[in-house]
Every structure is written in C-alpha cells, then in structure tokens.
Design a protein that fits this description.
The protein is α+β, with helices and mostly antiparallel strands. The protein has 4 domains: about 100 residues, Glucose permease domain IIB (Gyrase A, domain 2), CATH 3.30.1360.60; about 120 residues, no CATH class; about 160 residues; about 170 residues, Glucose Permease (Domain IIA), CATH 2.70.70. It is built from 21 helices and 21 strands. The longest helix is centred in the middle third of the chain and has 42 residues. The two termini are about 30 Å apart. It is found in: Cell membrane.
C-alpha cells in the first residue's frame, strides 16, 4: 500500500491537471512551488481537501504554491518519482518571464518580487543552519565563555573554527546569490557564481582595502568589501542574462560551450568590479540608510510599523527584500534594527496557532490540533511562519483580528527597548541571545505571543458560521466513530445469523454455510478494486470486493438486508445481508467533503430492507463538479470471516460481482 506521502503527492498531481501540466517544480522550506501550462486546470478546493495540504496560493497567470509545512521536501521527492513530473532543472523551453509571483497590475513588478524570492529561497537552509551556529556562539558569549565580537586573533582556536562555520555562509553569500539569481533568470548559474567569486579571491583583496582606488586597465577602480553583499551579485546576474543572450545570438551554437562563458566572464567580472558592484553596494546602503534614518528619528515608530507590515508582506512573498536589507545592515552597520521588531510579528503568529491548538484540544478537533501543533513547533523552534500563516491565519475570518493586536503590543515593547540584532538569525526561541537587549526582546515577543494567544482562547479564531460548521463536523465524526465501534463490537460478539425462512420468489437468501453471490447494487461498469484512487480501498484494507463506475444515480439493496449504518452526508451505506455478509457501498472518493450536497438518503439506520429497495440517490454531475471521482467501491467489510471474497470485474447486468465463499470448517 502506498504511503500517505505518496498518496498526497499523487493527489496533488491529479488536482493540478496532471504531470503534463507542470513546466517546473521546486520547493522552499514549507511550500511546493510550480509553474503550470494552464492554471485554470487547478482544482483548489480538491487540493485543500487533503489534510496534508495547508493551503494553496495561485500566483500570476501560471504560478502555484502548495503549502505543505516542514515535511515539504518529502512530498517534493515523492512527486518527482511520479511519471512525467519535471524537477528543478526541467523547465519549458520558453524564455517568457511569466513566472507568477505577487499578483499585481504590472507583470514586471510581479517578476521582480518572484526573482528575489526564488533567489533567496534555495539558500534558506544554509542561512537557517548558520543562524543557529551563531546562536550557540552568542550563548557562549552570554555565559562568559567567549567574546562574540572580539577580533578572531584574540579568540581560542575552537571558537575561531566555530566562527568559520557560520561565516562560510555569509562571507560566500554573494557566490550563492550569484548562482541562484542567474539560474532564476535562465543564465548559467556557475558563471553567475564565478563573477562575485572573483571579487572575494585573495588576489582581488590584495589590491587594497575597501575605499581604496586601484588602477586596472589604466582606469581607476574603487575597491569594496563584497563579502556578505547581496545586491552586487543580484545586479551582476541581471547583467549576465543580457550578455549571455547577446553572445548566443552572435556566436555559432557549435561553440557556445567554449566562447559564451569565456566572453561572459571577460565582460562581466570587470563590469561588476568597475560599475555594477559599487552600484549594488550603493543601492543596498541607500535603502539601509533610509530605514536607519527612520529608526534614528524614532525607533519606537519603526518597531511598530515593521510587525504590522509583515502579516501582509509574507503571504505575497514581499518580505524577501527586507531579509536582504537585514544582511546589508549587519555588514555595513554591524547590527540590524529590523529583526527584533520582526520577532513581534512572528511570535504573535505563533501565539495565534498556540491558541488554536488549545481551543482544538478542548473541542477534540483532531485536524486543527495537528495543523496548529505543526505550525507552533515550526515557529517556536525554527522561526518559520508559513505553516501557521497558511495552515491557520489565511483560512479563517477572525485570525487577523487576533494577530494584529499582538503585533502592535509586541512592537510597542520592542520600541521601548530599541532592540538590535548583531547577527542574521531566524526569530525563534533558540535565537533569543542574538538580540540586544535580550531581556527586552523576550518581553516583546512574550507580549506579542500571549496577547494573540489569549485573544484566540477567549474570542475564538473563527466566525460564527465557521465555528458552527467545525463543531458540527466534529460531532459527526464522533457519531461515526461511535457507530463504527458499535459495529465492530457487534461483529465480534454476535453469533452468526440463523438461516432464514423460505424467501419470497426472486429474492436471494444468504447463509454463512453456502457460497454467496452478490449482484451490483447500482448501474455501471464493474472494475477491479485496485482501480480506486484511494490506497485504503485499492489495497483491500477495508475489505475485498469490486468498484463500479456508475452510470445510474441510485443505490439499491442487492438482497434482503439490515442497514447497519448510513452516513448523514449520504456518501456511504453499510448493509448486513441475511447470510452475515457485511457489505459497504461507498459512493465516490472523498465525497464526504461535499457535506451531503448532491446526495439523498432514502433509508435509516437499523431499517430492514428487501432486495431492490432504493437506499441512496446521488447526482453524478454534482460529484464531478466538486472535483471528486464518482467511482464506487462495493466491498465485504468483514472479509476475514470468510474463506474467500472474490470480485468479478467486467460482470454484466444481473451477474454476480462478488462471490463470498465460507471457510472450510463452516461448510
């Protein structure tokens, strides 16, 4: 039987229009990101019906994000193993810049933010790992074991080596950014990496210090420290894209591999050193100085504005430029003033999902308990807000009314203490020591967290209709579980049904001691159970039998029987035939999500019915419109009590679709 991960991966592929509709597939820390040929083929409601899917966001005209949480890499790998699914490096031949992204009026704005997002996304893991190493060193500083900001030549070799472990990411960050930015644009990623790498070599550094001027090719070159910079490699990658495009037009394709990279390096490294690099540093410094001016004018105001902006920036992917500015601030100022206030947004977000978890525990809401617990753990320990955002915040009406007060209160506290970060870290419980003053930061995130958490606990996170619907669903699940448990107990303790009296003409009377043949309970084509797109049914976990692709709209009793259970939603009915055979008829797959729409229940639980009695009437068009398969499993749920249960795919009208043979000792 396929794992839940594989099943979900297959479900995603099916509901986005199939593997042939995917032009490219990647993932970040929490989201599957893909480009599609035709976005209109996406069945968003069906996608979100899978409990593993936390949310779906359409981007631009072709982009799609499916939020999966911290286990996204497993789902990504499972999707790659499915036939016809392209991976990161397999993209459509078109060079169109219709990549999706922020849904704005102008496509170039959309692509600009998508470019920034997809440039930093692949580096996210390395940045997160480095930020936790920084946290360990800051903790060592806090406990007096070493001075985090002391010159390296004054520190013990062990700590020098640990500094090298995190500096490797930030010092060579331009190389990583150069590679990912070039790849996003369609240029050669390794040439994109080589351009900023040239400005980090010992030979370049030996020419002088930052601010000095060297004479190269008879021209003055202003030297800069490019370690940790992000804007110069971004701009260089854009330049490389145009240079490569021009070179490929004028150089014969037979020698592209040799001369395109040769001339690209020959042109772009000097262009970056003389012009693009200093310009990129100027851009980064300009934005940083502007925000610094606001911070110098009133840290209090900035500390309130930042956490109130983030809840609207993150869903659109607009927070990535601010991440670049944080890194820029640390490189130019030695500290950053955005990360601290940003922590107020993060912890207000985590407070909301913690409140949701507490409410869910009280309500015995298993689905929301799992979603909120995952979001809370990813947030508090990893500083990642997407599982909370897409799993809870963007799904329910009242959540932002609980979130924003926490952001505001936390921002006020942050503003009072003028929090600064001395290293780029993800704001989680583990990175508190990177903030200064850390006690003020703790008070700020605690204020944000508990404000939002208590607002959820006292006033809920849903509108009245949402809450009523959720409570009704929970009650229905409880009732169904109770009925199932009663049936299991009955099956275990009740003796075999006695042989019935002589039946009426034309009605099958079944006994445990004889071979039982069951005819189709509805019109349609009889197929093997393995064709059902659900692993539990297809693998026989719920019993052996067949499935029917219905052409009719009514389920009939195939023989005299007792109705063991009939779902209020009308999607399933369980019968006990007179010979002790328990028959389950399940109309469609995941049709319980329709909430009874399109189904009419014609019988009641415990009702005695005759062969041919109508049980359920359903609307195949509504099932199809809702995006669910109408294929109907018909199976013997107590298969283990019999010697064999054999399905007959292809059986015609009036022929047996299932044969039940008793165990030998019962014959």
């Amino acid at each position: 039987m396929a794992s839940k991960t594989v099943t979900t991966a297959q479900h995603i592929i099916q509901e986005i229009g199939g593997a042939e509709n995917i032009t490219s597939l990647t993932h970040c820390a929490t989201r599957l990101r893909m480009q599609l040929h035709d976005q209109s083929l996406v069945n968003q409601e069906a996608l979100e019906s899978d409990p593993a899917v936390l949310g779906v966001v359409k981007q631009g005209t072709n982009g799609l994000q499916v939020i999966m949480g911290g286990g996204v890499a497993d789902f990504y790998q499972a999707m790659l193993k499915e036939p016809g699914v392209p991976g990161t490096g397999e993209k459509a031949a078109s060079t169109s810049k219709d990549y999706g992204g922020v849904r704005g009026k102008y496509s170039w704005v959309d692509y600009a933010f998508e470019f920034l997002s997809d440039t930093f996304r692949p580096i996210l893991w390395a940045l997160l790992g480095a930020s936790l190493i920084i946290t360990l060193l800051v903790l060592a500083d806090t406990f007096g074991l070493q001075d985090f900001r002391a010159p390296l030549d004054e520190q013990p070799d062990t700590y020098v080596f640990m500094h090298a472990m995190w500096r490797s990411v930030f010092y060579f960050l331009p190389i990583m950014v150069g590679a990912t930015a070039a790849r996003k644009l369609g240029a050669n990623e390794w040439v994109g990496a080589a351009i900023p790498a040239a400005l980090l070599t010992p030979e370049f550094l030996a020419m002088g210090s930052a601010g000095d001027t060297a004479t190269v090719f008879g021209l003055p070159m202003v030297l800069n420290d490019y370690a940790g910079q992000v804007f110069p490699p971004l701009i260089a990658a854009i330049g490389l894209f145009w240079v490569e495009k021009l070179l490929k037009k004028i150089i014969p394709s037979a020698v592209h591999m040799v001369f395109v990279p040769f001339f690209s390096l020959l042109i772009m490294i000097p262009a970056t050193a003389f012009l693009l690099g200093p310009f990129g540093i100027g851009v980064g410094n300009g934005i940083s100085h502007m925000l610094e001016a606001v911070n110098n004018f009133s840290p209090f105001i900035l500390s309130i504005v930042i956490p109130l902006l983030y809840p609207f920036l993150v869903p659109l992917g607009l927070h990535w430029p601010l991440n670049a500015i944080m890194i820029q601030n640390i490189n130019s100022l030695g500290y950053d003033f955005i990360q601290g206030p940003m922590g107020a947004w993060n912890f207000a977000c985590f407070g909301v999902v913690t409140g949701v978890m507490i409410v869910s525990l009280k309500e015995h809401n298993k689905a929301m308990r799992q979603v909120s617990l995952g979001g809370m753990m990813a947030g508090l320990l990893g500083g990642i807000s997407e599982p909370s955002l897409y799993g809870v915040l963007l799904r329910f009406k009242k959540t932002y009314m609980r979130l924003l007060p926490g952001c505001f209160v936390g921002g006020v506290v942050m503003g009072i203490f003028n929090i600064k970060a001395y290293a780029f870290v993800f704001t989680s419980l583990l990175t508190i020591p990177a903030m200064d003053p850390w006690l003020g930061y703790v008070m700020g995130i605690a204020a944000a967290f508990f404000t939002s958490m208590f607002l959820v606990i006292f006033f809920d996170y849903r509108g009245k209709e949402e809450k009523a619907e959720a409570l009704a669903q929970i009650e229905a699940e409880r009732a169904a579980a109770s009925e199932a448990e009663e049936e299991r107990i009955d099956a275990a303790v009740l003796p075999a049904a006695p042989a019935a009296a002589a039946p009426a003409a034309g009605v099958a009377t079944l006994t445990r001691a004889e071979v039982t043949e069951i005819t189709a309970p509805l019109e349609g084509r009889v197929v093997a159970l393995s064709e059902v797109p659900d692993p539990a049914f297809a693998g026989g976990a719920l019993g052996n039998g067949v499935a029917i692709e219905p052409s009719g709209d009514t389920v009939f009793a195939p023989a005299d029987a007792k109705v063991l259970t009939v779902q209020k939603s009308g999607h399933a009915v369980g019968l006990r035939l007179e010979g002790g055979v328990d028959l389950l008829i399940h109309i469609g797959i995941d049709t319980v999500q329709m909430g009874g729409e399109g189904f009419e229940v014609l019988v009641e639980k415990k009702q005695e019915v005759k062969a041919g009695t109508p049980l359920i009437r359903f609307d195949r068009e509504k099932i199809a419109a809702a995006g669910y398969p109408a294929i109907t499993p018909v199976l013997v749920s107590n298969t283990r009590k019999f010697g064999s249960v054999e399905g007959h795919p292809g059986a015609g009208q009036g022929e047996a679709i299932i044969t039940v043979t008793p165990k030998e000792e019962q014959a």
